[in-house]
Write a structure and sequence with these properties.
This protein has about 450 residues and is α+β, with helices and mostly antiparallel strands. The chain has 3 domains: about 80 residues, Phosphorylase Kinase, domain 1 (2-Layer Sandwich); about 180 residues, Transferase(Phosphotransferase) domain 1 (Transferase(Phosphotransferase), domain 1, Orthogonal Bundle), CATH 1.10.510.10; about 140 residues, Jelly Rolls, CATH 2.60.120. The protein is built from 12 helices and 20 strands. The strands form 6 sheets. The chain has a 5-stranded antiparallel beta sheet with strand order 1-2-3-5-4. About 35% of the residues are buried. The C terminus is likely disordered.
Length: about 450
Amino acid sequence: MGKYVLGRELGAGSTGRVFVSHDPYLDREVAVKLYLLGADMPARKREARRRLFFNEAQLAGKLDHPQIAHILDAGEEGEICYIVMEYFPGAEALRRWTLPDRLLPASTVIEIVFKVARALDYAHRQGVIHRDVKPSNVLRTPDGDVHLIDFGIALLVDVRDPAAQAGAKTGLVGSPSYMAPEHLKGGPPNPVTDLYSLGVMFYELLVGRRPFEAEGMSELIHKIVYASPAPLGKFRPELPIVLDDIVARALAKQPERRYQNGHEFAATLVRAARDLEVVGSEMRERERFNLLRRLPFFNEFHYPEIYEILKAGEWTSYETGARLVSEGQVDESFFLLVSGSVSVERGGRRLGTLRSGDCFGEIGYVAPAKRTVSIVAREPVEILRVNATLMEQASVETQLRFTKVFLRNLIARLARTRPDDGRGGTGGETTRTGSLGQLPFDTGSATTGGGTGGAS
């Protein structure tokens, strides 16, 4: 098609087909959209499709934004018109993530809508009204980036003369489910109607359904014009109420009550993302606190002291097979196994198992020492790593209680030891000697929750 070598088909729509193609001049892959204008097509339909082509071709070189797919070229060949666009390998339309069982995390949805809002703000400042913002017209790449596509029915306006746009007779085009109430009633499209459509898409990505659904067109229009959408929490109770506020403003019936430009919409999303991050952090901290206070090690601690230790420590998750501690490693940390189980190994040989509630690494906490065993996750585990230096930042009361419990557990382990069986100690993690002088300075494992403790 022209200079482009068509390859596999990427998809087909009501106006044509899209192929991944090769540009031999620049030696790169592009996407070529074909507008088919067959002679057997009714004249009115053929003319409408040709207008779509010229409308999109006019944008070539006009829009240069990271979240807008670039239109690189356009041309005609026989009864086919074609648009050449930027190609994004592996990208899929957002409609994939509007199904109830494929919904993205709220934070990801906010990021997507933020980027589209910025893209629309840019397009509007260039005098381009998209008029068909919906999930199928936004691509998401494997690395999570998004790109607004399909400007076939976009409206080009003179940004210096908004009054001329207000009187334009543009007709009712687009997807009714995403149209603003005033647009459905015959009003002209404008930046605010685009942002209403973005609000519908935001709602759909969050809960897997559109805010207004109906069996027939008249019922759908009536709902869009008069009804209020169901709260997000009805479908996803875990969503914070702040998102309901954003959606309510984006879908307000009166245009003047909505976001007036994409920058304003995007700024609100940034604030919401920060709030979600704070809420998420607080929830994670609360969940971790609840896990810690159930461990035998913390039986004597007051709640504020547990929080102090949680803040002074480093919470880490490991997958099966991950190495938490390696032989020969020098460390000054003490470890609490919060969940899961680990193997104690030396030279590739398993000496024993530690489980949730067990501790290890006391000797290294007392004085930096070289580890003589390795600790390997047998399943997904969570660890609280307490560093002696960081513990010094805790209150005196917390430090004293921690030291008291820490030493009691260490002494209890030493008291449970028995004379060497003639084969030598196991390296301190489950030493069999009753002499402190023979205890190697390495990863010891004082078990507080009744675990097996190293090789025992």
